[in-house]
Design goal:
Elements (H helix, E strand, L loop, with lengths): L9 H9 L6 H5 L3 H8 L1 H6 L4 E8 L21 E7 L9 E4 L16 E5 L7 E5 L13 E5 L4 E5 L11 E5 L2 E5 L12 E5 L4 E5 L10 E5 L2 E5 L14 E5 L4 E2 L17 E2 L11 E6 L2 E6 L6 E6 L9 E6 L2 E5 L5 E5 L6 E5 L9 E8 L1
InterPro entries: F-box-like_dom_sf, F-box_dom, Kelch-typ_b-propeller, Kelch_1, KMD1-4
GO biological process, one term: negative regulation of cytokinin-activated signaling pathway
Protein name: F-box domain-containing protein
């Protein structure tokens, strides 16, 4: 068998391949049969230094008649959304690394659906994939049931099986145990839904799940303790009046647990709820973050399940709409106009670090998820 890299010992060559960035994996995989086999091997992914990237459904820069954004006007892209991967830990100046992903080939006009959901499966392994689910057609604003799957190793998109009816908007979504779960939202008549379904990415097949106990429009989905947890939402008769209750689906028993009341405050939008990185493991304590009253707060099983304040947001991040926990006691908060901050809270005094987002990656974020490659 030929050397992975001629002239280098195999262990050193493998170390070099461990340092290949996510954006270069498809190219590196085509260099040789040896590289392809190594990059696809489970041992490579077990050894790879794993840290979380953020996949963002982010608005392209708005068109402007003058100033730095003017150069984007010539593209005719308009105010649309695209996929961006952000690595806050990368040593690219003070702003980490930012890179656009290719648009799904089957999406209308090769643009992301508005209000789509993102989920990642196969994290930290050769089967790592990013999914774009549902949303609205960017031209007609009609709800879509489409599913698009991106393979990080091949650098290619494929069209997945459509979500089962009814066509839902603003639903809860999260990856649990290699499958993607959706629940709630509303149908095309604006009726809040109780229905749910699970998508097996490898089998490209959907399975209907038992209904939730309550209708939940605009809920938030997170993975906690190996369960699909649906936070908040509101019924048809209470448009926009969010409830603070939670329901959790256990894939092991294929059933929903009892409704937990007032996990978040009644009236609070659950959009910024985010599970801690270790919350996905079975047997883990319940642990979530969210933004509330201008602060990052956290909730776990200790202290009677109370929310505790970790840190108040910097003044220019008070309008942030996205929070993401990326491990090592770090929380990323994304706002508009290039306000991106990382909170380090696993120390005596929590501290904020501002991340410099390049102009072309300064757009509004409508959805996000963590990806480990």
């Amino acid at each position: 068998m030929a050397d992975l890299i001629p002239g280098l010992p195999e262990d050193m060559a493998r170390e070099c391949l461990l340092r290949v960035g996510f954006q270069h994996l498809p190219t590196a995989r085509r260099v040789s049969r040896g590289w392809k086999a190594e990059l696809e091997s489970p041992s490579h992914h077990r050894s790879r230094r794993r840290h979380a990237l953020l996949a963002l459904a982010q608005a392209r820069p708005p068109l402007a008649g003058s100033g730095p954004a003017r150069k984007y006007a010539a593209s005719g892209a308009g105010y649309s959304f695209r996929l961006v991967l952000h690595d806050p830990a990368a040593a690219a100046g003070d702003g980490g690394s930012w890179a656009p992903l290719p648009a799904p080939a089957h999406a209308p006009l090769a643009r992301l659906p508005l209000f789509c959901q993102l989920a990642a499966v196969g994290e930290g392994g050769p089967a790592a994939k990013l999914l774009v689910l549902g949303g609205w057609d960017p031209e007609t604003w009609a709800p879509t049931a489409s599913v698009h799957v991106y393979d990080f190793l091949s650098g290619a998109w494929r069209r997945g099986a459509d979500m089962p009816p009814p066509r839902r908007s603003f639903f809860a979504c999260a990856a649990v145990g290699g499958k993607v779960f959706v629940a709630g939202g509303h149908d095309e008549e604006k009726n809040a839904l109780r229905s749910a379904a699970a998508y097996d990415v490898e089998a490209d097949a959907w399975t209907p799940l038992p209904d939730m106990a309550r209708e939940r429009d605009e809920p938030r989905g997170v993975c906690v303790g190996g369960r699909f947890v649906v936070v908040g939402g509101y019924p048809t008769v209470a448009q926009g009046r969010f409830a603070g209750s939670v329901e959790a689906f256990d894939p092991a028993t294929s059933s929903w647990g009892p409704v937990q009341e007032r996990v978040i405050e009644d009236g609070a939008c659950p959009r910024t709820c985010w599970a801690a990185p270790d919350a996905a493991a079975a047997g883990s304590r319940m642990y979530m973050y969210m933004l509330r009253d201008g602060c990052v707060v956290a909730r776990d099983a200790e202290g009677g399940g109370r929310w505790r304040t970790l840190a108040c947001l910097p003044e220019d991040a008070r309008g942030a709409t996205t929070v993401a926990a990326i491990g090592d006691g770090r929380v990323v908060v994304l706002g508009a106009e290039q306000t991106v901050y990382v909170l380090s809270h696993n120390q005596a005094t929590p501290s904020w670090t501002r991340v410099a987002a390049p102009l072309e990656f300064a757009g509004h974020v409508q959805a996000a998820c963590c990806v480990q490659i």
